[in-house]
Design brief:
The protein is α+β, with helices and mostly antiparallel strands. It is built from six helices and twelve strands.
């Protein structure tokens, strides 16, 4: 006998194209409170954090009482990478200011909160910069990886990200491009990336996310960030439609293990 489908709604930032796309391509529409949204079993939080989440709860106070997947997200990139390092996950050294012994040319500047790789550039100084941090450059970068991880799914999608060798960041805004990795479980480095991704999700009490890595020429894997609201590309949107639809097919008991 098939399990009855649970009632799942979406909470996200106003104007989010990804959330609009999810609503249009799945049965998961945005939560708006009121009588039409009574008896909701679970919410999926697509990257709503900080003051925007606070405003959302003021607008829809009933949402606070509903078990939510990824309820507590929004860690800064600097905090996330250093927490990962303390947990034994390999990542580039990241600091708020550089000692005199360090050459800035070996470091990059990154925004504490950034979208799409904007604001990443070669470090020019050593002093603390408001809203930024320094990260050690992985000079022998071969390519980058993104793992689309969902704890309730058996198989995860893995994408390679590449770009011009002399470009610091390979995000779309910097001319980078993704390639789908077919049969990722057949390769040691891709299996390792998925294993580390699971550790990252558990570390931040998340049930899904897009986890980014740098892979060096000698096969070393470096965690660089976890995204709770990744922007969609032609390669990734269907991954999220499928995963979130699969969540609605879980039993209420099973789904509860992925929500707080």
């Amino acid at each position: 006998m098939l399990q009855s489908m649970i009632n799942v709604k979406l909470m996200c930032k106003k104007g989010s194209n990804a959330c609009k796309s999810i609503s249009e391509n799945t049965e998961i529409v945005r939560y708006r409170g009121g009588k039409k949204h009574q008896n909701v079993d679970f919410l999926i939080n697509y990257g709503l954090a900080g003051l925007k989440k606070d405003r959302y709860y003021r607008l829809f106070p009933s949402a606070k009482k509903i078990p939510t997947v990824n309820r507590n997200v929004g860690y800064s990139k600097f905090y996330a990478v250093n927490k990962a390092i303390r947990a034994g996950i390999k990542a580039p050294k990241s600091v708020l200011s550089l000692p005199k012994s360090e050459n800035p040319r070996n470091w990059i500047e990154k925004k504490v909160h950034s979208i799409g790789g904007k604001g990443i550039r070669q470090a020019k100084g050593r002093i603390r910069i408001k809203g930024k941090y320094y990260q050690k450059m992985i000079k022998d970068r071969a390519y980058e990886l993104r793992v689309h991880a969902f704890l309730w799914m058996g198989n995860w999608a893995v994408h390679k990200r590449m770009g011009e060798k002399n470009t610091i960041a390979w995000n779309f805004s910097n001319g980078g491009h993704f390639q789908t990795v077919h049969n990722p479980n057949r390769s040691k480095i891709f299996r390792e990336a998925q294993e580390v991704s699971k550790k990252v999700l558990n570390l931040f009490n998340m049930s899904f996310g897009a986890i980014d890595f740098i892979v060096s020429n000698n096969g070393s894997l470096y965690f660089i960030e976890v995204n709770s609201a990744p922007g969609f590309s032609g390669l990734s949107d269907s991954i999220y439609y499928e995963a979130f639809t699969a969540f609605t097919r879980l039993s209420k008991r099973k789904a509860s293990s992925y929500a707080v």
